[in-house]
């Protein structure tokens, strides 16, 4: 999964001096031998940092394990067959440390020398740090080395340590290389400490447990009582428990700490770019994260509870909430625009495609348009609790079919922050709870829009009616909540929609692609055809209802109309690609696939035999979204309108009209190409289901004895409301 920029890691931009600690499990592989490839990759990263002007201090474990492997070999070589039959004695840890340290340092010297970097061996003991003069001299020596671009390589001098079992004894100023690294970071006033492990970071439980989750930011007040640690490192003294203790000590001393994997390529560089890798420890972490997390289930349950409070309000009160939101959007236009500008600038700097950036932009006119659509929605007839059908089942037994909210909606959308406003207003109008997950490229815009909207919701309902999901990591958990979430609506790429459909039991409503066609028939009015084609492509090229393929009747090539249509598009900067017939005749590149959504000023052109050829092409290559015919022949138009199996089919009108606001729905949560529940622009009606309400006078079934069923349809007066009840 692609790492995201984490604003809580902004400190990385100001890092100069780094302490990197590599654990035994990183340094060595199977059998205690050096993991040459892995260690070489880490050395290469450190050499690059050194070259880029960073001050690098390395703390390396692995000497005891490496020495043990070499001494076992020596013991084997020097043993007789009889010796090998006897129980093997445990090797002395201090001897292992002495032998292994020289081998470990020899490797570092050889490797760094290949990169034109000088290293220095720095062996220390716990007792040395009790001496103030030693600590002062240590600081001065390291400072001098760093000034000359030398990388000091620290390790505890276990061979001469006064502790009886240095690899077990956890007393003293430091007790292993994790705590030594933390101590050095504090003593040498480092800007960052990176602890490289054999796992990605700190998890809520053993990393091997599929229910364990990576903790991105450690909050002591929250996590110290929650975490279950696994076993210690297979080779070293400690494990994650030791790392967490060392990290907490350093972090609360003012040194940011990252625990991450030494197995993953470029993790050190990613940390310094501010990417979210591993687990961050920081003295201010409690200010960034809530001590009590809101789980995915908590958010969904809260949204449902708030939706029931919303449904209990009067129709006028719900209407006023929407009007308050519209006013709040206009009142906060400047701050919304400022946050959106930051998103747009970041997207442009990151090199996003022009079409994505275009969808991201929120101009002042867009905010006014959104406010207007919300007001239009507020003035529409209240959709909740309407009586759709009324039946006399038997004498004095009346049955009503009524409209009702679906419950809780999960909307996953990309790029367009205006979608958040439309979806939220529709959810409120239809009485549904809502969970929203927008794209990371619109993070700031989504956050400010969510705040403006939820601040306008009265406390009697609560802002938890609309939850904003901020991390992709939460999506898999949400998709499992089929008992709490009632409908998922993905708005985005084909890949996004497919992934969601394959990952959940919750019903999914949406469209994958917007491959819209305009077919220009031989009996068209030329000026009308040019207007419709140009508008369908150019009004908003990034929209899902923009024309992606222009189909033209073969006769229009001979009378010159095709050339006029092509010129109208090219004169406005549209790049054209042709099908097998059109590419040669128009001298344009041949398209690689008809099933392609450009979302930009580009489209495909193809020549067809007649209306039936156009229909066949649309059914074979289209996405069942929106398709249009331009013709004056009413019979041909009716054939097209009846036979094209798309969510929206138009005659002599731009595909851009396929929109909830333009259809008079007030707004839309998306355009559905599904054939179940809702199809086309999904407004309020698409977010409702039905309930049955029966009113009787004590009737019982009793085997249907004595009941005379009348099943008589009763008139329903416009605006008739059923007795409202919580969903």
TrEMBL record:
Pathway the protein acts in: Amino-acid biosynthesis; L-proline biosynthesis; L-glutamate 5-semialdehyde from L-glutamate: step 1/2; Amino-acid biosynthesis; L-proline biosynthesis; L-glutamate 5-semialdehyde from L-glutamate: step 2/2
Q: What is its EC number?
A: 2.7.2.11, 1.2.1.41
Could you tell me what reaction this enzyme catalyses? L-glutamate + ATP = L-glutamyl 5-phosphate + ADP; L-glutamate 5-semialdehyde + phosphate + NADP(+) = L-glutamyl 5-phosphate + NADPH + H(+)
What are the entry keywords? Amino-acid biosynthesis, ATP-binding, Kinase, Multifunctional enzyme, NADP, Nucleotide-binding, Oxidoreductase, Proline biosynthesis, Transferase
GO molecular function term, any single one: glutamate-5-semialdehyde dehydrogenase activity
Q: Which GO terms describe its cellular component?
A: cytoplasm
Q: Any keyword Transferase? A: yes
What the record says about family reads:
In the N-terminal section; belongs to the glutamate 5-kinase family.
Q: Which NCBIfam families match?
A: P5CS, PRK00197.1, proA, proB
Protein name in UniProt = Delta-1-pyrroline-5-carboxylate synthase
Give the organism, scientific name. Answer: Raphanus sativus
Name of encoding gene: LOC108863281
